[in-house]
Amino acid sequence: MKVSRWVVPVLIVLLIAAGVFGAGTFTIPSLTIDFPTEEKTAPESIRTAVFVIEGVRCVDTARTAASALEDTPGVIRYVAYASRNRVEILYDATRTDEETLREAIEGPVYDQVSQEFLFHVFKVLEIDSPGPEG
Amino acid sequence: MAVFLREDSRVKAFRTLFQIFWVAATAVTGFRFAMGWTRTSIETYCPFGGLETALSLFTQKQFACATGERNLALFLALLILTLLSRKSFCGWVCPVGAISEWFVLMGRKLFSMKRGTKKAGWYGLQPSPQVDGALRWLRLPILILILVFTYKTGELIFRGYDPYYILFSLHGHDVTLWSYGILAVIVTGVILLPMAWCRYLCPLGAALWPASALGRLRIARNDKACTGCRTCDQICPQAIAVSKVDQVRSGECTLCFECMENCPEEGVLELQLKGLER
């Protein structure tokens, strides 16, 4: 069946739009780390902190940012979405808070390659955390 | 004024504008990211990233390196597009394909001026169909190496050698002096051998080839009306021998319509939508 050539750009625009907007309908993490916790956390004290972080741009940088939280008590799970520079941290609100997590991430991080502490590697640009109910 | 032009000229003009739009949009995105005005890099819009991350997603349920949902969704959309309209992405959207085509146009103009002829034709090196066919297989090991090493390292190892990234990231992450050296070699290759990157090296082109060969939109040739002048063969950027087939089934066809636009006879070549038959 003969068709107009205009069908090609129409298909391209439709499918690119479907790809761009369809991407917003699902999320898959770049990195998930469960932190070992000795104390049991009551479900009602679990909170989620959501940060958009400058410097988190790939799996490696997301892992480095997670390492900054290793000494922070109360961190339960760390989930990074590197392509969105977004990190979600599940924490025990009785042991830590959002500001402490932010300070830890923005603090010095140990670089395995140079074996030195690096400063100002990460900067929290946005805090997008849900409320206590979230 | 465009309404007074033939459909051929209107589609051709529109395709050129379409390509300019995508090149400009990519350049602006790269510039804005390099200046720190946006967090969205050009990598976010690369459908090849969706393929690179596929093994990690399948085995580890997580994305590789800087890839994300948009890369995956764009790759899936591109796969559907290719099953419908062949490698139209390469001929209408891909910025590297567009720039390569502009090199071909420049080369043709220079060649025509030198030879004092206005006839459309190739310039530069023209390998025989056998050599051309063999060289096209180069893309396959390149594709496999990239997929395997990306999976093994979790890094986008191709980034520093990818002309799309080198051209538009404005000295982005992983771009070194080597990258510019490789880019210079690719540009030289494209000048000497038209569309060399797309034909012989592009890993995305290799990945799309099987879906493109099954593409439902095809250029069909009316053998009775064809005079056998072979202008279509000479003008095709992918060096497809259009005049030798009744339908262009080649997985290399980008539906750029250069053959249709340059055919001197009316009604010889037309775009057809095929059913599920081969």
Name the poorly predicted regions of chain B. Answer: none
Write the H/E string of chain B, N to C.
HHHHHHHHHHHHEHHE
Helical proportion of chain A, percent range: 25-40%
The CATH architecture assignment of chain A turns out to be 2-Layer Sandwich
Largest interface, with counts of residues having CB < 8 Å to the other chain, equals: A-B, 38 and 49 residues
- Low-confidence blocks of residues of chain A: none
Total number of strands of chain A: 7
How far apart the termini of chain B lie comes to 40 Å
How much β-strand is present in the residues of chain A? 25-35%
Question: What structural class do you assign from the helix and strand content of chain B?
Answer: mainly alpha
CATH class of chain A: Alpha Beta
Strand order of the largest sheet of chain B: 1-2
- Adjacency order of strands in the biggest sheet of chain A: 1-3-4-2-7
Key terms:
heterodimer, A: 134 residues, alpha+beta, Alpha-Beta Plaits, five-stranded antiparallel β-sheet, two-stranded antiparallel sheet, 3 helices, 7 strands, B: 278 residues, mainly alpha, 2 domains, two-stranded antiparallel ribbon, 2 strands
Summarize the structure.
By secondary structure, chain A is an alpha+beta fold. Chain A has helices spanning 7-22, 59-67, 98-106; strands at residues 31-34, 46-54, 75-81, 86-92, 109-111, 116-118, 123-127. The relative contact order of chain A is 0.20.
